[in-house]
Design goal:
Number of helices: 0
Strand order of the largest sheet: 1-2-3-4
Radius of gyration: 15 Å
Structural class: mainly beta
Number of strands: 16
Strand content: over 45%
Shape: globular
Helix content: under 10%
Largest sheet: 4 strands, antiparallel
Distance between the termini: 19 Å
Order of helices and strands: EEEEEEEEEEEEEEEE
């Protein structure tokens, strides 16, 4: 298991991993509630939309996929990056998705059109983790030992934390 996400109501978990499958679980009793198949390589990241209706999965097959939580039917598949997509998250209001990749970029996607609205050449190394702050500022963490903040409207860098050689080591 490479990834676990939780629904905001606490009722479900979603996992992904080396078996290329997205699985939904009932949090209360651990019963499997659904299986989504379609990725061609490991599922690196899974997360729920804020309303719990949609699941986002990111894969080493360079795609992101959106699944209906109720039946795990795939709604959308997007060739998202030029490399492995290592993480992806919905914004709290559900209007955006942010993804990070081994191609060193961060991308922002509109959830209505599923079009990339912003591409940021973000880091000197792979982008392992991404997310949104409450004000929709994007945060990204990279193999290059930096955590960066980005304005989601302009794509401009809004802050940076640099780790020294002793911090964040493997």
């Amino acid at each position: 298991v490479w990834s676990v996400g939780y629904s905001w109501d606490g009722q479900h978990l979603v996992t992904g991993g080396e078996d290329e499958v997205v699985r939904v679980w009932r949090a209360r009793n651990g019963e499997e509630a659904g299986v989504g198949q379609g990725h061609d390589w490991d599922v690196a990241s899974t997360s729920f939309s804020g309303d719990g209706q949609w699941i986002l999965s990111c894969s080493q097959d360079s795609t992101i996929r959106v699944w209906d939580r109720k039946d795990l039917k795939q709604s959308t598949q997007i060739e998202a990056h030029k490399g492995w997509v290592l993480d992806g998250k919905y914004s709290a209001d559900g209007s955006g998705i942010v993804t990070g990749s081994e191609d060193k970029s961060v991308k922002l996607w509109d959830t209505q059109t599923l079009q990339c609205t912003t591409e940021i050449k973000a880091h000197a190394g792979w982008v392992f983790s991404v997310g949104f702050l409450q004000d929709k500022t994007i945060v990204s963490a990279s193999q290059d030992r930096t955590v960066k903040l980005w304005d989601s409207n302009s794509g401009q860098q809004a802050g940076e934390l640099k780790l020294n050689a002793d911090q964040g080591a493997h």
